[in-house]
Design goal:
This protein is α/β, with parallel strands linked by helices. It contains 3 helices and 6 strands. It has a 4-stranded parallel sheet with strand order 2-1-3-6, covered by helices on one side. A two-stranded antiparallel ribbon has the order 4-5. This is CGGC domain-containing protein.
């Protein structure tokens, strides 16, 4: 069984119930279409906010470091990045980009995408 997760923007919590991501996974469509039925969506992680509300950069953010450690300890193999992590729907948030690099440094594959809008 492969364990995967999603990474989303903290601010998206205001308007998103993760229905699109979960539906795409459950129906094995969009960015989840290649996964077998025994794949488990085992983690749903957010960033810890923008610099205006969280001055700690991801490398120094104890919460982010703890989250990544937990993903590793739970044997999460792949993290999918939600479209909510794009600034104005175009460019990936630099904090998300750094978190993705940190995930990859720990052996977790990163896929940009969950569902189609």
């Amino acid at each position: 069984m492969t364990k995967i997760g999603t990474l989303t923007c903290l601010h998206s919590n205001d308007v998103c119930a993760r229905v699109g991501c979960l539906k795409a996974f459950m129906e094995r469509e969009a960015f989840f279409k290649e996964y077998s039925q025994d794949t488990c969506l085992a983690a749903m992680m957010t960033c810890n906010g923008c610099k205006s509300m969280n001055p700690a950069e991801p490398d120094d953010d104890k919460g982010i470091l703890e989250k990544i450690d937990r993903l590793v300890s739970e044997d999460i193999k792949v993290m999918h990045v939600g479209v909510c992590c794009l600034i104005d729907g175009k460019k990936e948030c630099p904090r998300i980009t750094r978190i993705c690099e940190m995930l990859e440094d720990r052996g977790i594959q990163v896929v940009r995408g969950t569902h189609r809008e």
